[in-house]
Amino acid sequence: MTAEGTEIVDGAPPVLAEVVRSGFVESRHRGSLVVLAADGSVELALGDVTTPVFPRSSNKPMQAAGVLRAGLDLTGERLAIAAASHSGELFHRDLVRRLLSEHGLDAGQLQCPPDLPLDPVEQETYLASGAVRDRVAMNCSGKHTAMLAAAALRGWPLDSYLDPGHPLQKLIHRVVEEVSGERVAAVGTDGCGAPLPAISLSGLARAFRFFVLAAPGSAERRVADAMRAHPEYVAGTRRPDTWLMRAVPGLLSKMGAEGVQAVALPDGRALAFKVEDGAGRVSGPVLGRALDLMGVPVGGLLGKAAVLGGGREVGEIRAVF
Residue 51 and residue 80: Cα distance in Å, rounded? Predict the structure, then answer.
């Protein structure tokens, strides 16, 4: 596997994508990317793939595995939404409310911030109905509900379920280290308020590889299987993670904020990348190109990102590696 134009200049990561407007290169986005072969070896590394980063919501499969290891018995779409950055569509909000009720909880116990639906189409409908920012509508509400339910099941404190020293968060920390094959370098606070462990892009790719190759019935395999069977609950009806997991049998995909993405194929091949400036607008073209290099031709699904001028297409965002 080869890629052109990926030289590191003055220690900066390589350019992964550029924005072309009216035939003129307007912007360039640098980043780092790693691809693992089926045996787990590094097949392609662009930029620095060993320095820790915050994977943001690409951590969610690991957090979902942690609640299963704590003893919470989730299956199907309920487990998928526990690993989700959902769009806040009505079926997402309804399921979160059902989960809360099934475990004797209420939305007031959620400690994720009130928010609007992530999906812009759904957001317009939501606001037009007179609804306001709500914790259930926040894209991480499924994860928070699962964390609360696991804590309640074990008799652990509910009001401190997001504290890094909480028994559940310590368990999730151990899961992250086990599946990534490395020590957590730092713990920050994610946008939803949950602890956010830092690992390398190589560790993130190894973690996703671990999930798809895990033994059937294990916590990690159960999460991977639920996500792949119910991708619309992981993301939404108009989101790339959903499109990918529907289009490619056995593929596991989870995006994260600040330009992070991780993917694994059922044969153990995996990839992870981070766009240096956090620009999510280039994630589709970069992911499409990386999967094309891996022999998974999805460029038509992800590789096209239009640049608009006056409401019409005048250019594109394109991967350049």
Answer: 29
Distance CA 163, CA 129 (A): 35
Tokens of 30: 């640098």
Nearest to 201 by CA among 285, 276, 271, 292: 271
Distance CA 84, CA 60 (A): 7
Strands 260-264 and 252-256 turn out to be antiparallel
Q: Is the pTM of this model over 0.85?
A: yes
d(CA 145, CA 80): 12
- CA geometry: angle at 278 spanning 275 and 283, to 5°? 55
CA atoms within 13 A on the CB side of 305: 20
Nearest to 119 by CA among 94, 145, 139: 139
Give the pair of three-digit tokens for residue 189. Answer: 């606070």
Identity at 248, one-letter amino acid code: V
C-beta separation of 165 from 195 below 8 A: no
Instruction: Estimate to the nearest angstrom the gap between the alpha carbon of 276 and the chain centroid.
Output: 16
Tens-binned pLDDT, residue by residue, of the chain (321 aa): 645 444 444 578 999 999 999 999 999 999 999 999 999 999 999 999 999 999 999 999 999 999 999 999 999 999 999 999 999 999 999 999 999 999 999 999 999 999 999 999 999 999 999 999 999 999 999 999 999 999 999 999 999 999 999 999 999 999 999 999 999 999 999 999 999 999 999 999 999 999 999 999 999 999 999 999 999 999 999 999 999 999 999 999 999 999 999 999 999 999 999 999 999 999 999 999 999 999 998 867 776 789 999 999 999 999 999
Q: State the number of CA atoms in the 13 A half-sphere of 257 facing the CB.
A: 14
CB 104: neighbour CB atoms within 10 A? Answer: 10
